[in-house]
Design goal:
Length: 97
């Protein structure tokens, strides 16, 4: 089982392009879509059985952060505090623009 955050980050970066490609037709990254992509990403990584579920939860957006689930465009404002998954999704989405 791969347990380091670095292993998970590498897997996230390798897995995201295919997931992003499926959602590119949406045009813009919304809060609802970023949550959906994160869910697909975590499901995909968990299904491999290679990662400790506790470690996977550590890199996802905490419900306590109160991120919206709306169709408004994602905007983190000046915040540089966000889940690793959200940062990776936002970066991968921007690459395709």
């Amino acid at each position: 089982m791969l347990d380091t955050l670095e292993d998970i980050k590498l897997a996230v970066d390798a897995t995201l392009p295919a997931i992003i490609a499926r959602h590119r037709v949406a045009g813009q990254l919304t809060w609802r879509l970023i949550h959906q992509i994160e869910g697909e990403l975590m499901h995909t990584l968990a299904a491999t059985g290679r990662y400790d579920p506790v470690m996977l939860r550590m890199v996802t957006a905490s419900p306590w952060m109160g991120y919206p689930h709306t169709d408004e465009p994602v905007d983190f404002g000046d915040s540089n505090v966000r889940a690793m998954t959200f940062s990776a999704i936002e970066a991968a989405w921007a690459l395709g623009r």
